[in-house]
Amino acid sequence: MGAAVTYAEARGQLLQIEAQEAVQQVAGAARAGIIGAAAVILGWLLIVPAGISLLSSRLGIRWEYLAMGVAGFHFIVGLIYLLASRRRSAALRPFQESINQFREDRAWIIKNRQKP
């Protein structure tokens, strides 16, 4: 019984350490992503209308057509980044050490149960 309690405590401590590390990693990435996205959005909200106005007057094109082209470009770039984000998030493996340790423990328990 004492070995089981010690085992559970050790696994609980490992999970706690990995949970703290995972929270710090995710929080740091989320914070940087939110700040970066906000800055980019604000910048684009200011520069795109001004750029469309300048280009339409210089090129002699109606601003509506130019705005539609710029919007299409933004949709394509946004789609590329969303797909990249999806691929990166699929590659995340939080609690990998705990999962590996549980697999090893399970294999050890199965191996030792078979002995009479």
Topology:
Elements: H1 2-59, H2 63-90, H3 96-113
Helix pairs in contact: 1-2, 1-3
Structure write-up:
The chain is an all-alpha fold and 116 residues long. It has one domain (2-113). It is 90% helix and 0% strand. The chain contains 3 helices and no strands. Helix 1 packs antiparallel against helix 2 (63-90) and helix 1 (2-59) packs antiparallel against helix 3. The longest helix has 58 residues, at 2-59. The mean pLDDT is 86.
Shape: rod-shaped
Low-confidence stretches: none
State the secondary-structure class: mainly alpha
- Count of helix runs: 3
Short description:
The chain has 3 helices and no strands. The chain has helices at residues 2-59, 63-90, 96-113. Helix 1 runs antiparallel to helix 3.
Keyword list:
mainly alpha, 3 helices, rod-shaped
